[in-house]
Amino acid sequence: MARYLVTRNMQINHTAKLSGIVDGPGIHDLYRSRRTSGDAEASLSRGDSLMTDWGYKQFCPVAMASEVLGTRWTILVIRELLCGSHHFNDLRRGLPHISPALLSKRLRELEELGVVSRQRDPENGNPFYRLTDAGEELHPVVMAIGCWGQRWLEAQLSMKNLDPSLLMWDMRRNLDPDPLPSRKVTIQILYHDVTPGQAKWWLVIDKAGADGIVDLCRKDPGHDVDLYVASDLRSMTAIWMGLMTVAEAIDSGKLQLTGALQLKASMQSWLGLSTFASEPKQVDT
Fold first, then answer.
1. 24 in the Ramachandran plot: left (φ > 0), alpha (ψ -120 to 50) or beta?
2. Ramachandran area for residue 186 (φ above 0: left; ψ -120 to 50: alpha; else beta)
3. pLDDT exceeds 80 at position 167
4. CA-CA distances (angstroms) from residue 23 to 26, 66, 102, 145, 219?
5. Which of 2, 11, 274 is nearest to 143 (CA)?
6. What is the pLDDT of residue 285?
7. I want to staple 25 with a disulfide (CB 3.0 to 4.6 A). Which of 29, 142, 185, 234 is the partner?
8. What is the mean pLDDT of the chain?
9. Start-to-end Cα distance in the chain
10. Helix H segments across the chain?
11. 234 CB-side CA count, 13 A
């Protein structure tokens, strides 16, 4: 029964999205329509109770919070900030399907609501974004949503949303360099079932690097490759999500490793799986 309800609700939501229902207005559209031109912008901290017809019109904190966090992309923007992305381009790499204009709008709304703080890099003047105390308090909320999704949503639903750019970006920031040698290591990953422009990726791990330990490249960085990893996108995504182990993928012929023995033997350790990979599935995969 649980499996049916979750699957059915996902189908309903997908239909609503196609018809334009899910997108809805922006966060501040919920609070502006009844104001006169002379009214000042009010923040959530002032307890503004003005709601539009789109809102739930309930004083319940769950309803109030849902009006802020339930707009499209908002919770995912917060997820990216919690994962350590602070610059606009990094946020877009974690959200490859959001338009720059909509991302700017969501960041501006979250800033006005006191959830995000926009600052300037003192060295180059470029803007970057950080969560405020109010934003940081959403960490357990986002984690709980992710754990619930991993436990109760069918894996096949996730497997319909394959994206090599997002997968590689997640692998890059979750990769654990500790099991790797202290020298610079280059790993090439080849997906043989995607378009040529998204088929080849390079992970460069340099523990002594000044610009960070792990770098993700879409063009050949020119280093000697220590490990070649060949797979299809679906299998690599399943490994990263904890639905399949590296050993299982190798045994089934879905993953081929060529190169340094140490890197091959320790791949399950250094790969750095999804934060939610350890959550046990409660529905059939």
1. left
2. beta
3. yes
4. 8, 14, 11, 20, 35
5. 274
6. 63
7. 29
8. 83
9. 15
10. 2-18, 29-32, 61-69, 74-82, 88-94, 100-112, 133-136, 139-152, 155-158, 164-174, 233-240, 246-251, 261-265, 267-270
11. 7
Reduced to 3 states, what is the DSSP secondary structure of residue 248?
helix
For the chain, what is the largest distance between any 2 Cα atoms, rounded to a whole number of angstroms? 70
d(CA 216, CA 202): 6
103-131-216 Cα angle (round to 5): 65
Rounded to whole angstroms, how far apart are CA atoms 192 and 147?
A: 31
Q: CB of 283 within 8 A of CB of 5?
A: no
Residue labelled with tokens 């422009």:
197
Reported as a single tens digit per residue, the pLDDT across 27-73 is 555 444 433 333 333 444 434 433 345 678 899 999 999 998 999 99
Strands 127-131 and 116-120: antiparallel
- Write out the two tokens for 35: 């104001």
Residues with Cβ within 8 Å of residue 15, at least 6 apart in sequence: none
State the CB neighbour count (10 A cutoff) for residue 246.
19
Helix (H) or strand (E) holding 202: strand 200-205
Contact 275, 147 (CB under 8 A): no
The whole-angstrom distance between residue 191's C-alpha and the CA centroid of its chain comes to: 20
CB-CB contact of 35 with 50 (8 Å): yes
Model confidence, pTM: 0.75
Pairwise CA distance, residues 240 & 192, whole Å: 17
Measure the CA–CA gap between 161 and 93, rounded to whole angstroms. 16
